[in-house]
Amino acid sequence: MSDIETLQTELMAAIDSADTLEAIEAVRVSALGKQGSVSALLKTMGGMSPEERQTQGPIINGLRESITSALATKKAELETAELNRRLSTERIDMTLPAPDIPRGTIHPVSQVMDELAEIFADMGFAVAEGPEIEDDWHNFTALNIPETHPARAMHDTFYFPDDMARDGQKMVLRTHTSPVQIRTMTSQEPPIRIIAPGRVYRSDSDATHTPMFHQIEGLVIDKGIHLGHLKWTLETFLKAYFEREDVVLRLRPSYFPFTEPSVEVDVGYSVINGKRVIGGSEGWMEVLGSGMVHRKVIEACGLDPDVWQGFAFGTGVDRLAMLKYGMDDLRAFFDGDNRWLQHYGFNALDVPTLSGGVGA
Length: 360
Ligand code: DAH
Prior knowledge:
Elements: H1 3-17, H2 21-32, H3 37-44, H4 50-89, H5 108-122, E1 126-127, E2 133-135, H6 136-139, H7 150-154, E3 171-173, H8 179-187, E4 192-201, E5 212-222, H9 227-242, E6 249-256, E7 259-272, E8 275-278, E9 283-293, H10 295-300, E10 309-316, H11 317-325, H12 338-344
Parallel strand pairs: 1-4
Antiparallel strand pairs: 2-3, 4-5, 5-10, 6-7, 7-8, 7-9, 9-10
C-alpha cells in the first residue's frame, strides 16, 4: 500500500470512530488544518516535476476530497444525533397544569377611593390633592383653629422638629384632609366642586385607630349654596355608595371650627340576623362630619364670604370600607397579610363604574 493509501485508511478509521463533534473537529484539524497531514501532502505538489504532478496530483486531490466529504457526512450525522438526544431529554410536558401565578388584589381602601371618585365625578366633582407634610397654617390656622384652640390638642398631631419649620411655619403630618379645602380655594377660582381623598396621621392606636388612616374631604363653593344642597349631595352619595335606595340620613347639630353651622351625619341601619345592615332607621351610625364653610375660612382664602358660600364634609375612607364590606379590625388594613388581602381584596379588572354597580 502506498503512503497515501495508508493515510487514507487511517483517516477514514479516525473519522469512523469519532463519536463527538469535538472528536470530528480534531480529526479535521489533524488532516486539513495548517499543520495537517493532507495539507502537508498538498504542499509537496509544488516541488514536483510536471510528470510527477500529473500522476500524484489527482491522487492527492482525491484524498483531500474524500476526507473532506467523509468529515462532512460524519459531522452531519453527529449533529443529527445530538439534536435527537436533546429533543428526547429536554422535553416539556404541555399537559402539566400551569403553575400557580401569584395574583395580587386591589386593596379595599383603593377600591373604595375609586368608588367614591366615580360617584362624585358623576355629580361634577373633580379630585384634588394636597401634601401629607403640611404647614400649621393650612392644617389649622386657615381652618379657624388658632394656636390656643382646644381642637389642636384633640388632633394628636405629629409635629416636625422646630428646625424643620418652613417660612416660619411649623410643619406637621396633616391630621385631616381639610387643608386641601384651603389649598383649593387659594389656587382656584370658584365655583369649586372637589373631593380630596388621601392619607392622614394622628398619634393614636387601637382596634379602631391607626396612626395613619384615610379620609375623604368634599368641598363646594358657589353662590347661594345652602344646607339643602349639602343634604341632597350626601344622600345621593350614600345611596350610590351603599347601593340602596332606602338609605336614611339624620343630621345632628355639631361643632367643627371650620363650619358654621356644623352637622354630624348619621346613617340609619336595620338589624338583620343579628347584623347591622345599612338602610332603614332601627338604629343610627355616625358616618360624616360636615357643615357650611365658615366665613372666616372663606376670608382666610382671600374670597368674599358675602359673595361665595359653600359646604364641606369629611369622613374616614377606612370606616366607609368597613361598613360596606364587613371588616371589623382597622389594623388588618395595614398589616399586609396576604390571606386578608386575598379575602377582602378586589380583582384588578373589577373597576367600579356607576353603570356596572360601584361595589360590583
Ligand atoms: N376634618 C374633620 C376631622 O378630621 C372632619 C370634617 C368635619 C371635615 C366637618 C369637614 C367638615 O370638611 O365640614 O375630624
